[in-house]
Amino acid sequence: MTYAGLGAAISPTVERMDADPVPIAYTALQPGTPVQTSDGREFGTVVAVLVDAPVDVFDGINVRTADGTRFVDADQIGRIFTTHVCTTLSWAETADLRGAR
Fold it and tell me: Which of 2, 25, 48, 95: disulfide with 62, CB 3.0–4.6 Å?
């Protein structure tokens, strides 16, 4: 594509949509999304997103781990991205998570 007066060809660029994780709301979170500790270590995947329906409040997520399905409270969720969930938990704290709700 050439623009008048510029005298040079300009090629359009296409930005990659997957270059950086995109923050999302809990309502867009999908089962199978990896879940990480605060230092980025993956400890499971999302099984279900839990909502307190009467008041429409995010309650947390059930996570499939090597030790079974565990519940991560909404207060323990740092950020949610299209590619993963970042928790505020350390690796040691993941061992203390209670069973799924």
Answer: 48
pTM score > 0.85 for this model?
no
Over residues 51-95, the pLDDT tens digits come to 999 998 999 999 999 999 999 999 999 999 999 999 999 999 999
Question: Domain total for the chain?
Answer: 1
2, 84, 72: which is closest to 35 by C-alpha? Answer: 84
In order, the DSSP letters of 14-78 are ---TTSS--B--GGG--TT-EEE-TTS-EEEEEEEEEEETTTTEEEEEEEEETTEEEEEEGGGEE
Residue 42's domain comprises 26-94
